[in-house]
Fold these 2 entries.
Entry 1:
Amino acid sequence: MFALTVLYDPECGLCRRAHEWLADQSKLIELNFVPCASTEARQRYPQLNHDLTKQDLTVVGDNGAVYFGPKAWLMVLWALARYRDWSYRLAAPELLPTTRRVVSLISQNRYQIGRVTGLSR
Amino acid sequence: MTIPISTYLIYLAISIALTIWVARTLHKNGRVFLVDVFHGNDALADSVNHLLVVGFYLINFGYVSLALKLGYTIQTAEQSIEALSVKIGMVLLVLGGMHLFNLFVFSRMRRRATAHPYPPVGPDAFTPVQPAAQQEA
């Protein structure tokens, strides 16, 4: 796998901020950002369930592998030179349930978090 | 030549010879590692190798120089040999520590370069990718 497409939620301030942060990181794998459920996303992945991608972060590999929710977060970490080790640590059986819980919590409350931290415009 | 002066000179000669020997070993054998780390980029590997060896020399000679002072007077040849053994023993330990640290740096660099080509998690599904839309990415 040489590239990952990140389908992010353009409505959410936290996600935009995360996007900016990711742009600055050095990557082992190319990351492309496409707003979820956009025309571009639909064009690129005609058979993907785009309503589902609005609910949680989705990452698609250049081989068509789809990662949804917590797995998508781990894949993004995996793409970063500094955090690849962490992606394995967080995906280990002992930590994966916690990772899932924390990530889901952030994901479900992303609009509130963005509002509270003043990230949403 | 008095005993203290010759003790210092022997100390310096042995320490400098040891440092040069270890540094050369490191230089000669570390290169292969670095070439591998930098994916066959010889120029970069040689450069990093040289810089590491310079740091190695600086730290060791610095230590040798700082540890020169004995702090007590020696009158006999026995005292001289004892003082030398302590001093050179310390130099050897520092050299050993530095050498292991260098090996650690090399192996860490190597591990970084080759670490984990596989994703941490399996995919949830597969979806066809439209190749036409990918060209601008």
Entry 2:
Amino acid sequence: MPRHDYRWLVVTLANLVLWWLVGLTNHYLAGSVPVYLYLGGLFIAYGALRLDPKHGLTATLLTALLMDAIEPVPFGTSLILFTLVHVTVLYGRHRFPREGAVFAVVVALLANLFLVIALSFLLVGANPRPGTAWLRIFMDLICSQAVIALITPWFIALQDQAMEFMEIHPETGRQVHR
Amino acid sequence: MLPKRFDQARPFVVLAVILLAWIFLPLFAKVFTRATFFEIQAPLIVSDSFVRDLQTFWSNKTHSKDELLKAGQQVAGLIAEYEYSNQRNAYLEGEILRLENLLKIPSMPEYRFEAARVARRDFSAWWQRMIIRKGSNYGITVGAPVVFAGGVVGRVTEVHKYTSVVDLVTSPTLRLAATVAGDTRPVSYQGGLNNSFSSPRGTVDFVPLDVIASPSARKQLVTSGLGIFPPGLTIGEITTLEPSADGLFKNGEVLLDQRLGTLTEVTVLIPLNPEE
């Protein structure tokens, strides 16, 4: 009996849980401290580094569509940006120790930096004072990068544990016994 | 066997294919996909709002009866004032109707009030939005004005089955036709000055040169009635005014209500007679 391969679903669901937690955090921060956390780079890290290209790209595409559905950007913006980052990481990942948490943190940080800058160039033009907006974006970026540096090892470990629980090897999809 | 370079560049070929597929995807497919992915997440957004309400309920249950009675007494005075205002409003509305019939002038737009709980706030430098827990199931329409006790909250920009998205008055994408209180000349308000660790502000343009405002002598900015908002609703306070680059008008900053960041309930004004 063929065994179904749900690696893309495991990663997508993990991203959905993180997306929900980030939304909750931003909700509470909005009421007290005007800081906004954007962790787009973290959603791509595991799928781009650990999964095979097909499943990783599927997870990234679905995550990007989930984000695009909520955000007031042209639908498909995150899809294109996330896919661009994902394929860039895929292109160069064999040169680096991608199993380690440190490299995952670096990839998440760089990916997030690119995404924030790209989104800002697309959206900041609508602001009546773009210079002031860039200051706010810079402050939000610093806070977001700090959070990514802190939680990336946890999030990568969470997804690794999820794969282990499902008894699937992340890259090959073969069954592994606990 | 394909050359090694092409094999390594395969991900970028996949990117190009996805990009082309997305560009040529029909619009109805994109609209359907967006709605689907939004509704997938809507229960998560709404559920934590219900959990917060439950937390508040159980927190209130821990208060003693004496504390609740005292709180009720404090609110009783406010309720009496509002009841008087309601009666006065009903009388004034009757007078307006009588004058409209006498002078044969068109009626002012009327609204149905729909109170909605705030499910999620999303305040970034790029946008300032909130999601409320009522949608098309309560007759909410796109473009409906949203208000609270302190004045303007924003405008409904998206309506889904059980939720709606409100673009806040602090958002850089929101523009309103406004007037300085006591004046009839229209000015333009736009949100977007949301610096870190400072109060939310907006900008006002095309202010007449004879209007003067300063941090110690602020001018109230209200809706003009041109557009979707009823006239006279508070937007904020003009704190600074400076001559514009062309010298014909003044530009300035508007200080908005601090409570906008902590709203838990808003009111959507649904037009009773929407324009065709």
